[in-house]
Structures are given as structure tokens and as C-alpha cells.
Amino acid sequence: MTKLQFLGAAQTVTGSRHLLEVDGYRVLIDCGLFQGLKELRLRNWKSFPVNPASINAVILTHAHIDHTGYLPRLVREGFSGPVYATPASVELARILLPDSAMLQEEEAAYANRSGYTKHGPALPLYTTRDASAALKLIQSVKYGKRVQLGKRLSFEFMGAGHIIGSAFVNIDVKGVDGEIIRVLATGDIGRYDEPILNDPQVVDETDYLILESTYGDREHPDVDVKDQLAKVINDTAALGGHLLIPAFAVGRTQQLVYLLRELEDEKRIPILPVFVDSPMAVNATKLYLRHREDHDLDMEALVSANRNPLATHRFHLARTVQESKAVSAHQEPTIVISASGMATGGRILHHLRNRIRDERNTILFVGFQAEGTRGRRLVDGEKEIRMFGELIPVRARVEQIESLSAHGDWREILRWLSGFKRAPKHVFLVHGEPRAALALETKIRERFGWEVSIPSYLDEVVL
Ligand SMILES: [Zn+2]
User: Fold this and answer.
1) Which of 172, 265, 351, 394 shows a CA-CA span of 20 to 30 A to 445?
2) What is the arithmetic mean of pLDDT over 55-64?
3) Local confidence band at 345 (pLDDT 50, 70, 90 cut-offs)
4) Per-residue pLDDT averaged across 120-127, rounded?
5) What separation in Å is there between the alpha carbon of 129 and the centre of ligand 1?
6) pLDDT class for 178, splitting at 50, 70, 90?
7) Ligand 1 being an ion, which residues bring their Cβ within 5 A of it?
8) Using one digit for the tens of pLDDT, what is the confidence trace for 205-239?
9) What is the CA(62)–ligand 1 centre distance, in A?
């Protein structure tokens, strides 16, 4: 019997984990952490819905924490099988999982210091040691290489175009009489015509499709991101001000640097010192350059010609705290890219504290700003902001570019689905808030007439 169970990212966008079971052989597709609302985060602490020791293998679609961040806990609770991921995902997981573990440890230490825990000492969900134990189980599998798991299961990775190393998992289950049932899990689907990465790979058939729906109800605005960037940079430079860009260290930072370099090459912006201030971004940038299997043609042409597409003309990477402090001392206008993307923590806070009181400067947000974050309050126009226990007046201009996103919107998802030559038997919509998933469900029914459903947490179906 072949069964599929949804152990996360069901009517929500985090905690991606789907269990495929074929005659008792268990494969977990993704092993994500629940993030965001407290009722979701509490699920990370409950015992895993199936015994982790009974799972035979894990396959990861990509390295984002909402797809991988539970792995150290799964290993700690008894999972000891192989974990498969693409070469770039393996390297990215080596950066992101220890970082996630460190955050867990810091959170527990903070709870103990401030005494807000209810029972005994607070313990981290997992430690850096658990993260290294998990990383020891990871094996790298190239796109297009088929891997046999057990007697009846095999899979291959296909490019998803979402972040470096991101993949669709294409699984074949062989029936007793030789027929094949195909199951395809998209993980997160990327965008078309984006810098650096290839478009999502064309898929022309599957029997069961596990499809993400993050932007199932949204369209990315039809504006030229480079035009917007150029305007903000030119306006700020004309005032003699500094530009601060809070950005996630992996993916978004590399994309920004790529666009800045293009704008410089096209002489649409002045050549300013550009600082990327984040040790994680420095490591991630190297990884983006190295993994040529993920590069689109433009990126590949530049790399082949020995040009660095991920550096501007006056480019500086700040790794140490000293280097970071030196960035803020610059008098001539600069562009500083630093994490975190929602200004909830990280080195960007020090730069904000130094630059936010000057009306010549600009703070440019380039990603989604979740409710309750400092980034959201700034974008909403608050005139004072609390940082390091101080209430600081906001005099710098605050701008936002919303169309930079690593997820395809509903139009891009339908474009990808239109590559199918036959209808899947069933489409399961996951990784979307109920509104987004419902909107996409309707659109798929209208456009293709396929059978679609939105599973709930722990739902189980027999394929
Ligand atoms: Zn993702």
C-alpha cells in the first residue's frame, strides 16, 4: 500500500514535511521547522507524529529552515537514515542548520536569564551538536541522477529555480505488477526570468502533485525592479546620503548585488562603495558563485569569462566586527546590505542606529515585512523606533520594493502547470495560508479542470 501523510505546511507556510510510505518503507519529503504563530511553533516541541526511528530516509527540496530546520531534532529523536539533497543545498544546510541551532540555544539561554520559563531550566529545541549530527547524515545528489530507495521507490531532483540548490523531488513508486505511480513534490517554486538562477524546470507529467501555494492569491507587481532600485540610489546619492538595505543573507543579498552591478555596468547609477556586512552572506555568496549547475545563461557567461557577477566595482565584504564598525564610519555616500531582512536583529541594527536620524539617508526594504517586526513599523511610517533600549527618531526616508520574491505568484505557478501534457490524478495544495491555497485551488480547477484538494495537518491519503 502507498500512503501519503501531511505532517506540516498544511494550510500554513512553514513546517514542510510530507511522509510517503510504500509497504512500510517511509520517506520524509522535507523536514521543516514550524515558524511564526505560537500555536504552530509549539508543534516543534510535541513528539513527532510518527516514530523518527521508523523513517528510512529524508529527501530535502531546499535548504530554507522551514524545509530543513527540524532535521536536528528528528535525528536527536532517533532518525538515523540517509538525508538526500542537491550539492548546493548540502552546502547551504551546513551554513543554515548550525545557525538555527545557535538561535535555539540563545533563545533558551535568554529565557533562563530573564526567568520567563514556567518549568525548570529552558532547553533548546536542539543544539549545535544535534545540527552537526544531522549534517553527517546528508548525502549530495545531483539534478537528474536517479537514486533507488528500498525495492520499490526511486527519485530524482529537478531544478525549482527558488534559491540555489532548490529542487522538485520526482518520485517513482513501482507497483507489484510493474506499473509506476509518480509523485512530484515541488518544495517552493521559483520565478521566471530572474537573475542568477535557472527558471523552474518543465515537468510534463505526474500522477500526484504536492504543490506549494504561498502566493496562490497574489500577483507580483509588474514593475521593473532595476528602475526602482536605480531611482532610490540616485535620489539618495543626490542628497549625499547613505543607503541601507536590510536583506536576508542567502538569496536576496546575492540578487541585489547582481542587480547593482548591472546598473553600474549600464551607467544608470554612480559607482559607490557597496558593503555586504554579514558573515553568512559572505559564505553564501561564495556558494552562489561555485554552484554553476544552478546558474542561468547570463550568470554562466559572466562566470566563464572570469567576471564576478556578484561584486560591484567598489565592493567590500565585511566579516569581522571591526570591519562592520568601519562601514559605519564612512563619510562619502555608501550602499550597505546587511541582515536581518526585517530588521529584527543582526548587524543592520547597528547601521540603522547610526544612520536613521539623518534625513539624507534612505532605508530600503526589499522583502516581505511581517507584522510585529521593526521593518513593518518603519514601512508603516512610525516616527520613532526602539533599538538597543533607546527610542530613536526616524528622519531617514523609508522605501520598499515589494516585487523581489523567491516564490512564483499564481500566474507563474499556472505557467509552470501548463507544461503538463496530461492531468495529474490529484493535486495536493500545501505551503500556503488558507486564503492563498483556496484561491489557487479555484484557479487550477477553472483553468485545467484538475482534481485539487487542500489537506489539513496530519491528513492521510492512500494513493
Ligand atoms: Zn523556500
Assistant:
1) 172
2) 98
3) confident
4) 89
5) 24
6) confident
7) 64, 188
8) 999 999 999 999 999 888 899 999 999 999 999 99
9) 7
Q: Is the pTM of this model over 0.90?
A: yes
Q: Which three cell numbers stand for residue 43?
A: 508543534
Task: Using the mean position of ligand 1's atoms as its centre, give its distance from the Cα of residue 430 in Å.
Answer: 13
Residues 445/437, Cβ–Cβ less than 8 Å? no
The three cell numbers of residue 216 are 496562490
What is the Cα–Cα distance from 101 to 73, expressed in whole angstroms? 10
